[in-house]
């Protein structure tokens, strides 16, 4: 897996006033990279594209009400 040229962007749901922000690079084939915008050199998480899509889909589904 090559991560030589990620194109980073601030994630859509990140806090816009300098708080909790993550950056996402989704321009690489088969992988999505995620990092903390305040600590860019602290490490990067790498997700398989299918795992990332499942994660984002789950975030969009409203939480189920407890019965």
Write a structural description.
This protein has one helix at 49-60; strands at 8-10, 22-28, 31-36, 45-48. A hairpin with a 2-residue loop joins strand 2 and strand 3. The protein starts with 7 loop residues before the first strand and ends in a 7-residue tail after the last helix. It is built from one helix and four strands. The chain has a four-stranded antiparallel β-sheet. 18% of the residues lie in helices and 30% in strands. The protein is flat. The chain has 67 residues and is an alpha+beta fold.
Give a short summary of the structure.
It contains one helix and four strands. The chain is of the alpha+beta class and 67 residues long. A four-stranded antiparallel beta sheet has the order 1-2-3-4.
- The whole-angstrom Rg is 14 Å
The geometry reads as flat
**Strand count, sense and closure of the main sheet?**
4 strands, antiparallel
Q: How are helices and strands ordered from N to C?
A: EEEEH
Percent strand equals 25-35%
Q: What is the total tally of β strands? A: 4
Count up the helices. Answer: 1
* Integer average pLDDT: 82
Give the secondary structure arrangement, pairings included.
Blueprint: E1 8-10, E2 22-28, E3 31-36, E4 45-48, H1 49-60
Antiparallel strand pairs: 1-2, 2-3, 3-4
Index terms:
67 residues, alpha+beta, 1 helix, 4 strands
